[in-house]
Design goal:
This protein has a two-stranded antiparallel ribbon. The protein has a domain at 230-389. The protein is an all-alpha fold. Strand 1 and strand 2 (412-414) form a beta hairpin. The chain has helices at 5-31, 33-46, 48-80, 85-146, 148-163, 165-175, 179-212, 214-228, 231-272, 278-288, 295-310, 315-338, 346-389, and strands at 402-405, 412-414. Helices cover 83% and strands 2% of the residues. The longest helix is centred in the N-terminal third of the chain and has 62 residues, at 85-146. The protein has 13 helices and 2 strands. The chain is globular.
Amino acid sequence: MKLPWEKKHLCWGITAFLTIIASILFYMVLQRWSVVSGVLGLITQSLAPITYGLILAYLINPLLNWIEHGVVFPVVTAIAKKKNRRVHNISRMVSLTLAWSLSIAVIYTLLALVLPEITESIESLIVSLPEYASHAMEWGGDLLKKNPTIQAFLLQLIEGFSSNVESITSKLHEILPNIDTFLAGITSSLYNVVSAILNVLIGVIVSVYVLKDKEKFTAQSKKVLYSVLPIGKANNVIAIFRMTHDKFGNFITGKIFDSMIIGVICFVVVTIFGMPYPALISVIVGVTNVIPFFGPFIGAIPSAILILFAEPGKCIGFIIFIILLQQFDGNILGPKILGSSTGISSFWVLFSILVGSGLFGIWGMVCSVPIFAVIYNLVREGCHDSLTKKGVDYTSETYEKIDHIDENTKSPVWFENITER
């Protein structure tokens, strides 16, 4: 339906006016960005317990589903001999209690097994530091005696450092009067730690409420979508959320399980070969393995330094073992556990990790792969739909050996069918 001339220009005028208003608002936001970022930071800090609760609920949900549908609900139904809302509520609360009790028990058991070993390793490291320093000085002295060039270079560095002692002293004089600021910073850090612990505890409570009524929240979200968007677009949004849930759920749970196995393998091998601090090193390697691709290497750096100080002869062996462990995890164990949860090639995994770490740091490294997998699948499905509407084949293999697609027949023209131009 064509609009009358006056109404059409009125729509153009309203659109231009709204565009100008949006541009002015955007400019004002940029000009007052410090205030806007402060408000956003305050909102984020206020919503921290809710965020933690949602994350905990998402992590506990698979265990809850397994306990409820596999154990509790059949038992409660058999006892009550009927299925109604009350039976469902009882099953949910019993399942929630069991899921959180089991999770806390597993975490407590792991900490009870690992913490004493880690504490002993750290105490041993602290006690042995003077001996390690003595060995390092002896090794450095022997190195300097055998390499006069290095000795001369280090002497020049020491002379340069000595010449800057006065400036360093003056800097210290500037810092010491500000000791109150330093202590205030320490107090603020302690407050942040206590606040984070409280947020996590409140998050546990939030997760219980979320999991208790998760079907209700899901129904309300769908109701809002269908009321705001056309039915087709609402269906697409729901499909995207389901795909995102599948990618994140499979990746996170699989990666945690994979990291636990890698930590156990590391502990067994390090113990067999008599390397120092097996528990501490295994925890470092297992925790950092949650980060795709770079995780084992990130964990290997501090671990190799610890071994280098304690027993230098075993450091090279440990580095070789970590390389082999990373290859085993990346090519055998990881694909077996994660399966096709991401559906992207190794190049895109590396690409997503580098971009995610550059933009969002450590959390970007952890979450970038499933996020990029969702974007990758959306782009791929969009391309498939567009090519299907044009009547063109969308399989990637088709495009490996074609020169072009015929505009009339919509068929691929292969390289071997092209005469020399």
